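Because discrete structure vocabularies remain unfamiliar, we turn briefly to a single example record, giving the amino acid sequence and backbone structure tokens:
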Amino acid sequence: MATNQTNISLRDRVNYLLQESGDLFSQLIKNSFDMIILMDAEGIQHYVSDSCIDILGFNPEELIGIDVIEAMIHPEDKQKTIRGFKNIVNNREHGGTQYRHRHKNGDWVFLEAFGNNQLENPAIGAVVLNVRDITERKKAEEALIESQARLNDLNATKDKFFSIIGHDLKNPFAGIIGLSELLLYETENKNYENVREYAEMIHHSSNKAMELLTNLLLWAKTQRGRYDYKPEYFNLKEAISEEADLLRDAANLKSISIEIEQSADLSLFADKAMIQLVIRNLISNGIKFSHSGETVHISAEKNRDEIIVHVADNGVGIDPGKIEMLFKIESRYSTIGTNKEMGSGLGLLLCKEFIELHNGKIWAESEPGKGSVFSFSIPVVEAVIIDDV
């Protein structure tokens, strides 16, 4: 650490240099957009130009005589700032270090410092730093990174979209066409023995194609911000019961039971159609991945400031390492049900989109062979009563 005598002599030298340089040089430094800083070998500042007022909010006097790296630099940037300063002192480079400096208002300002070692120069005897504010540049860089990430997501979305159209939507229609041709052939030959079976298969394939197409169109709307968000108060237990009733036939075909466990009627302020689609998808998945004789459990609870819904099954389960892939479009992760049911993986993506539109969260817990629990939470929105004036 430099002595007080050294500090005083260096400050005096700076003042002397400024006086000797004349008004023109002083005015150039004073009105520079960058800060000119003189530091000793220990990192103590002995001169800071007036530009620091505009950049950092501090008067020069408030930044003189302090170890700026210790007192003002963001903790995460201290080590690289120390390395950069030492490199200048040791004449290894001229800096270019970027770091965050505390503003007087408590915010952080991004700075970039270039330096020149003039410690051995008897006329200066200091490290001369030229420091500029790069906050706007950093914001622009971060915005560019975010834009690139968004562009990558959009490209992945586009690829997924065309993949679904080209493969997942094509397959059920191909099945319908094939079955209908077979049905026509059988009726033309007056062979009615398998007509009902073929008709049921066509009906099933048509429903799957319509479900996929509906989900595809809804998902496309969310990606373009075209889905109308219409929140309202509704009874969650009734909404869950409605969706469970719609899926009981599908569950009965696999001898799977659906149980609803809810301690009390819960009122939820949300887009009912969206929430019901989420519940429907999760129950449908529970049925899809459960074995004959098993049960899909649905429960709901209020926990502090949110309502949480769980849909649990004892089915095939999922590798925990692949759970995150279920909610990412670029992963294209889908598995086959216990009765060879096929899926596009689009349903869970829709669930995620709709829950996040409500500022909620969706997650899953699972283990192969031990079933899965899919859960989502929606923040509770209390009713606001406005008195008549």
Summary: The two ends are 69 Å apart (CA to CA). The chain has two domains: 4-133, 228-389. Residues 1-8, 383-389 have pLDDT under 50 and may be disordered.
